[in-house]
Amino acid sequence: MRLEFSWLAVALCVILQQDLCQDSVQAASILGIFSYHFSSHNLVVRPLARALVKRGHNVTLITPVGMPSDIEGVRHIRVPKLNQQMIECDQMMDFFGSKWIAGWLAVTMLYNMSLDILSDEGVQRMLKDKSERFDLVMLEPSALEALYGIVEFYNATLMGFSGGNVNWSTEEVAGNFAPSINDPISSLGYSRGNSLLSKIYNWVHITEEKLLTHLIVRPSQLHIFKKFFGYSEQTFYYMRKRYSVILVNNHFSMGRVRSNVPNIIEVGGLHLTEPPEPCDAKLQRFMDDAEHGVIYFSMGQEILVQFLPEDMQQNLMKSLVQFKQRVVWKTELYSMPNKADNIYVIEQPPQRAVLAHPNTRLFITNGGLLSVMEAVYSGVPILGLPVFFDQFINLRNVNLRGMAEVLDANEMSLEMLTSTIRELLENPKYTLKARKMSQSFRDRPMSPLDTAVWWTEYALRNGDASHMRLKTEDVPLYYQWDWLILLAARFGIVFGSVIYLFYKVFQKTRAGPRPLQDREAAFQHLILLAPRWQAQ
């Protein structure tokens, strides 16, 4: 009997081992290229890199210096020029009043980023090392398309990883050409209204982005692609169709439900899988003793309070001192004028711990994606003061779901600010909506990190994931022609206007001599009639 049980145990072990092997993958060499010098992007990359190393994979990251900080078990190739690119970009932020100037700046920056990465000494050493190989290359599905050459060079699987929201460009490389008016690359100049005119305006906005990409950004990337790798134009455009899986830092519970194709995988909340930094004793006591709750104010990691408009700072201060709630205020200015006793000033607050505190009642934020995500995770209502980039869209989504109010930072009066804060604190509907969104955000079959790791190894197991992509021939033709219609309409209007102008000039030219000819004919007629008048 014991022998029979022993054989049964062995059989079960063999079956379980076979099942586990089906879901596992051999240790692979993975290359990740993440060019942006934003702390938010790197907070998302870091846990995935650690998890892949823990799974036994060899991970190499090409990034700016210090972004992210060194990860144990990961080989880092740092590109110092990427840091300089972001400094120059920050210096030119004042020119972002025009979307055309912003577009020109983006084209220049993306071109220089691709050039800086491929010409970097460390990257060149990697490419020239004959023993180097990579099974999978992970790229941001952005406009750095010259880097497709690295994927082709190693004959690797191409995988996308987006630290931001999904836009039409991500949809395009995923194989989904469905037209959309909701997913611009840049929200500068994008309308947030719901009227028919706003929808038409947004269609024009996104079509202009497509024209900029197709006519300027992509040809400049193709030039670098050919220069460094010598591959053909056909290879370049073929590579755009080789994305297997694209991980996106998004989740439907964040307020924007979208029709993703199968190879777009939502892993919003990756950075939340790491343990949060705790509050120090002084901050913890300040929040614990807040009888009426806490308001948390932060404009994110990239915006310094000292550079906010003076009237905005004063309005915030004058408004917040009117409430009985305590305030945790993130700022680099320790000697703030008119600072009240109920305000706790801190330069680098442990944001996740502050939002998770049971006494936190309201989060005033500029609306960065990770900040909004952390507020949703903790179920804290939001007052949004968006400044640039995707912040307007992030806050609009949670506003439509009922857990946030959004104000224009440039037109915000003291009365408007105070009444909005009071509404958010006293009306229980905002807290109820926030808690409901938190429940939806947390309720998943797998954690965001487990989901990201599983799909990364799925891409390694399958390599060619064309079975997950929409085929071009299956996409209705008019889905791909929306931008051509607008292009034809614009050139048609210009061409028609020029033709009409020439026609009017020609018509006027022909009509000019006629009065003179008529006068001469009338004069000759009078001469002929003169003898008759004299005879009479």
**Total of DSSP H or I helical runs spanning 4+ residues:** 20
Compute the number of structural domains.
2
Which class do the helix and strand fractions yield?
A: alpha/beta
Strand content: 5-15%
- The parts where pLDDT drops under 50 for at least 5 residues are 1-23
Description of the molecule:
- The protein has about 525 residues and is α/β, with parallel strands linked by helices.
- It has 2 domains: about 25-240 and about 465-480, 3-Layer(aba) Sandwich (Rossmann fold); about 280-440, 3-Layer(aba) Sandwich (Rossmann fold).
- The chain is built from 20 helices and 13 strands.
- It has helices at about 1-25, 40-55, 80-90, 100-120, 120-130, 150-155, 170-175, 195-230, 235-240, 280-290, 310-320, 350-355, 370-380, 390-400, 415-425, 430-440, 450-460, 475-480, 480-510, 515-535, and strands spanning about 30-35, 60-65, 75-80, 135-140, 155-160, 245-250, 265, 295-300, 325-330, 345, 360-365, 380-385, 405.
- The strands form 2 sheets. It has a 7-stranded parallel beta sheet with strand order 3-2-1-4-5-6-7, sandwiched between helices.
- Strand 1 (about 30-35), helix 2 and strand 2 (about 60-65) form a beta-alpha-beta unit.
- Helix 8 (about 195-230) packs across helix 19 and helix 11 packs across helix 15.
- About 35% of the residues are buried.
- Residues about 1-25 have low confidence and may be disordered.
